[in-house]
């Protein structure tokens, strides 16, 4: 069945601006990159798989032939690559106007708990801790340009919570719980970043988005692997969006003016699965000040421990 697609959001002129997007080698991230490049931004695309990165660049250049894009290396599940990227960008004084924290994994069909080389549960590190480490390491560059940080969440962040007594899902592992918890952690971090920046006058602003449901991305089969009676799958395929549509929410989060309160964008269709990108009521749990401060401090402690005690 063909559907009328909502018009893309209006983008500001981004010529002279530089944006870094994580997870731009596939899915929604390619389309976020395409949208920013079409508006004139120069792009830094850190990827863990250069061949996929090159394919993403080829795809973007089919619609934005003069796009200025540079690949860099980043595996959020390897903290040494996060540090290396931040050090290199800092040494080169790369101007950063927009940082989009989009990369993510979900391992819903896999009941086994996976741990990164740094010793952290894989959803927790990829979706949250790696992004925390990257953003905090890039803060001097971000502050210099009074940058916007756009945080890509998920519908799951609205119905999940952080298990403070089992942050790494060591005692009880459920993939959806680990995924949802990692997105809540990312959201708490984003709000805390906005509060800290406002308090210090650092000028970094934060925007939030979620892409709804996007059945056509690489992450989607894992989401579908939850199985069930097929109703969820049928609904997501009928109501969900394309990667290009879903990217509109992140493009608004990355560029919409205004700092306070941080804006939150999602698809405006039924169940927020798909449809036109629009402002959405933020998930109240994510702006809890005590939880945000606690998550920030915990992340700093985990990273400090990791720096001083390498995994065997
Ligand atoms: N699709 C959906 O229905 C849906 C729903 C809710 C939220 N989201 C969120 O939307 C965002 C984009 O998802 P998507 O659907 O576009 O997924 P996708 O097609 O699987 O793309 C995920 C991107 O993240 C990158 N990535 C994964 N692990 C990484 C790591 N360790 N280091 C660096 N990059 C890594 C992937 O790189 P590779 O190319 O190397 O794999 C890829 O570029 C994610 O944050 C996801 O949680 C998606």
**Largest sheet, described in full?**
8 strands, mixed
Widest sheet, order of strands? 3-2-1-4-5-6-7-8
CATH class: Alpha Beta
Distance between the termini: 54 Å
Radius of gyration: 18 Å
Number of separate strands: 8
Q: Uncertain spans, ≥5 residues at pLDDT below 50?
A: none
By DSSP (H or I, 4+ residues per run), the number of helices equals 9
CATH superfamily, please? NAD(P)-binding Rossmann-like Domain
CATH third-tier fold name: Rossmann fold
Query: Oligomer, anyone?
Result: single chain
Instruction: Give the ligands present.
Output: NADP nicotinamide-adenine-dinucleotide phosphate
Approximately how much helix is present in the residues? 40-55%
Overall shape: globular
CATH architecture classification: 3-Layer(aba) Sandwich
Order of H and E elements:
EHEHEHEHEHEHHHEEH
Strand content: 5-15%
What count of domains describes the coordinates? Answer: 1
What does this molecule look like?
By secondary structure, the protein is of the alpha/beta class. It has a single domain (18-307), classed as NAD(P)-binding Rossmann-like Domain (Rossmann fold, 3-Layer(aba) Sandwich). The chain is built from 9 helices and 8 strands. An 8-stranded mixed β-sheet has the order 3-2-1-4-5-6-7-8, sandwiched between helices. Helix 1 (27-38) packs across helix 8. The model has no long low-confidence stretch (mean pLDDT 93). NADP nicotinamide-adenine-dinucleotide phosphate binds at residues 22-23, 25-29, 48-49, 52, 74-77, 102-106, 126, 152, 154-155, 210-211, 213-214, 217-220, 223.
């Amino acid at each position: 069945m063909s559907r009328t697609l909502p018009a893309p959001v209006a983008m500001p002129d981004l010529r002279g601006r530089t944006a870094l997007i994580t997870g731009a080698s596939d899915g929604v991230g390619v389309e976020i990159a395409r949208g920013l490049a079409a508006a004139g931004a120069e792009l830094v695309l850190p990827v863990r798989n250069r061949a996929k990165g090159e394919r993403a660049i080829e795809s973007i250049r089919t619609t934005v032939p003069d796009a200025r894009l540079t690949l860099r290396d980043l595996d959020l599940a390897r903290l040494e690559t996060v540090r290396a990227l931040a050090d290199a960008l800092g040494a080169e004084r790369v101007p950063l106007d927009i940082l989009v924290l989009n990369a993510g994994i979900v391992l819903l069909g896999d009941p086994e708990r996976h741990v990164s080389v740094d010793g952290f549960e894989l959803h927790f590190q990829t979706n949250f801790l790696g992004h925390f480490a990257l953003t905090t390491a890039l803060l001097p560059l971000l502050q210099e340009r009074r940058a916007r940080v756009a945080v890509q969440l998920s519908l799951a962040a609205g119905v999940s919570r952080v298990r403070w007594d089992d942050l790494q899902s060591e005692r009880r592992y459920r993939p959806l719980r680990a995924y949802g918890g990692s997105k809540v952690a990312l959201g708490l971090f984003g709000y805390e970043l906005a509060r800290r920046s406002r308090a210090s006058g650092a000028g970094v602003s934060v925007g939030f988005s979620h892409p709804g449901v996007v059945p056509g991305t690489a992450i989607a089969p894992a989401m579908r692997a939850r199985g069930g009676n097929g109703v969820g799958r049928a609904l997501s395929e009928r109501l969900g969006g394309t990667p290009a549509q879903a990217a509109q929410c992140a493009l608004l989060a990355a560029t919409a003016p205004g700092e306070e309160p941080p804006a939150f964008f999602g698809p405006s269709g039924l169940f927020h699965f798909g449809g036109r990108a629009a402002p959405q009521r933020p998930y109240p749990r994510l702006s809890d000040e005590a939880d945000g401060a606690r998550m920030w401090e915990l992340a700093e402690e985990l990273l400090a421990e990791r720096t001083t005690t390498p995994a065997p």
